[in-house]
Amino acid sequence: TKTPVRVAVTGAAGNIGYALLFRIASGEMLGKDQPVILQLIEIPAEGPQKALKGVAMELDDCAFPLLQDIQLFDDPAKGFKDANWCLLVGSKPRGPGMERADLLKDNGKIFIAQGKAIDENAADDARIAVVGNPCNTNCMIAASQARRLPKDRFTAMVRLDQNRAAAQLAKKAGVAVTDVSDIYIYGNHSPTMFADFTHAKIGGKPAAEVIGDEAWLKNEFLPTVGKRGAAIIEARGQSSAASAANALIDHVRDLATPGVVHAVAVPSTGQYGFAEGVWAGMPVRSTASGYEIVTSYEMDDFAKSKIAITNDELVGERDTVKEMLG
Ligand code: NAX
């Protein structure tokens, strides 16, 4: 039998956590033959800690054959101990009237502490996936604390945007989502992201050719994908949870599957014109131990202009938190 993989999850008593943990425990993330140990981390407050116990009771009640242990923590240093995967879902939500800069800085403190706790305590092979927003910049901040672990182990999630884009293209073309390929997300997980329809394929043919409506791609598809999170909140009264958890399952599973190409926010060394050192969504090809950035897509002027906008936003976020980065 395989050695269990330790999966640490922050924000485990939250909405995404509730849609996520049962799928990890059932083997959907790391495989149906891979035992897991869940190390669940919440803030020390009574409410979240009590809710976390409830989630653990339900996990017990599923009697998942692969779930070898469930451990509950209020201290990240203990919660990340020996973790192979660190899924950073928890973050501070934007309160009413709160400035974006304050949100960035408040979350910055959380991700400095978590980055440090991971670097000091997690397993040597630890990989990190950040979901809590603003996820690209939170990820950059956490990675800034890494002394032992390579910074490129820290990734942020743009997979929900990729999945949203694939679904929209399939719907428009009237095909199954499995017919859509080569759709990747560039830049920030925010409305400025660029869902690159220019290289997307439908049934192996260029998506733009199949859809035959450039105005729709530029003026409807891009904003629909970019503002989908807000549209879900408007419709449901709550932010995306099941689809976000599903995207995180996809993100981790595909990082753990050599050969798969998928969009991940990773540290830029200048690919596609992104500023060096920001965490930008790009296509990566997973390898046995990590990933390599796919740099072969040629961008036209339209795509370049979109990438420039989302890059500017990432650089602006970095400027806002630069004193924290040390
Ligand atoms: P919830 O508010 O339901 O849950 C968040 C949980 O995190 C709470 O239980 C809270 O106590 C906990 N938490 C806060 N700070 C923590 C800390 N320092 N350590 C441990 N736990 C902490 O939010 P939920 O709907 O689950 O969303 C979680 C995060 O995902 C949010 O930041 C949200 O903006 C972000 N999202 C990111 C997406 C992406 O594509 N990257 C999409 C979905 C989602 O909006």
TrEMBL record:
It is an enzyme of class 1 (oxidoreductase). Pfam families: Ldh_1_C, Ldh_1_N. Keywords: NAD, Oxidoreductase, Tricarboxylic acid cycle. Its EC number is 1.1.1.37. The active site is at H189. Residues 159-323 form the Lactate/malate dehydrogenase C-terminal domain. One of its GO terms (molecular function) is L-malate dehydrogenase (NAD+) activity. It catalyses: (S)-malate + NAD(+) = oxaloacetate + NADH + H(+). SUPFAM superfamilies: LDH C-terminal domain-like, NAD(P)-binding Rossmann-fold domains. Residues 5-149 form the Lactate/malate dehydrogenase N-terminal domain. Signal peptide: none annotated. It comes from the Bacteria. NAD(+) binds at G11, A12, A13, G14, N15, I16, G17, N107, Q114, V131, G132, N133. Substrate binds at R94, R100, N133, R164. Catalyzes the reversible oxidation of malate to oxaloacetate. Belongs to the LDH/MDH superfamily. MDH type 2 family. This is Malate dehydrogenase. It comes from Phenylobacterium terrae. The gene is mdh.
